[in-house]
């Protein structure tokens, strides 16, 4: 066999290998979960259009993995049952601490920040005025309903669970308690202000303190996922963001992402702010969710 023929055969073999690897990656199935969507029926309804659009632009196949919350999702990833999880900032910190989950792309939420809210006619004019009072938060461990509002209070000089009494009430129940004078303030995010204003049209609320924009929700990958697959996912969002966002927001339950977008150059350091929030409620290790 002459030298040119040998070179040609080697080149052909290398090309075939690259082509095979590319096809294999394109046909790979990734298992996908969302921590705040409960059950398969809801997951298919809320994320079905996104799944179809993502498969089209990425070449990957998506297999939904239904969970009933963040704890189930992190255990599923630890057991290598799920590859990618869409979750919130506080949850990401735990996923990363538990198994070095990799941030792939953020799902950005416009007007995503926290507030401390009081009744418009209440005597409190500053965070300091809430000392010794009872303050309600939303879901325990939530970034925007617990950790960030508690941080706003800490920045105002109030030590968590020492200078005030934290309670965790359903949002509408909390508003009713606020009206009755049973609590003095509520920690919630911007969207929730719209919700309570609509629910209680005869009441006026006042933002005592508004926080900065929060780190966004994030699609994270298990450390067992091959780097080339992660890169394929990241590239799909980078190159087809508007198309994927349109698919996501076509479902009413995903309205929080309207006007948002995706950021594929996210890093773990982007969530150090959330780790500081955990510390403000007395948590210094991030291996479990607050319950």
| Count, helices | 9
Q: Given the C-alpha coordinates, what overall shape results? A: globular
Strand content: 15-25%
| Tally of individual domains | 2
Mean pLDDT: 92
Could you give a quick summary of the protein structure above?
Helices cover 44% and strands 20% of the residues.
Topology diagram in text:
Blueprint: H1 3-26, E1 29-34, H2 40-58, E2 61-64, H3 70-78, E3 84-87, H4 89-99, E4 102-108, E5 113-119, E6 134-137, H5 143-155, E7 165-168, H6 171-180, E8 185-189, H7 190-199, E9 205-213, E10 217-221, H8 227-248, E11 261-263, H9 272-280
Parallel strand pairs: 1-2, 1-3, 6-7, 6-8
Antiparallel strand pairs: 3-10, 4-10, 4-11, 5-8, 5-9
Keyword list:
single chain; 291 residues; alpha/beta; D-Maltodextrin-Binding Protein, domain 2; 9 helices; 44% helix; globular; disordered N terminus
What does this structure look like?
With 291 residues, the chain is of the alpha/beta class. The chain folds into two domains: 174 residues, 3-Layer(aba) Sandwich (D-Maltodextrin-Binding Protein, domain 2), CATH 3.40.190; 101 residues, D-Maltodextrin-Binding Protein, domain 2, CATH 3.40.190. Helices cover 44% and strands 20% of the residues. The strands form two sheets. Strands 2-1-3-10-4-11 form a six-stranded mixed sheet, with helices on both faces. A five-stranded mixed sheet has the order 7-6-8-5-9, with helices on both faces. The N and C termini lie far apart (71 Å). The N terminus is likely disordered.
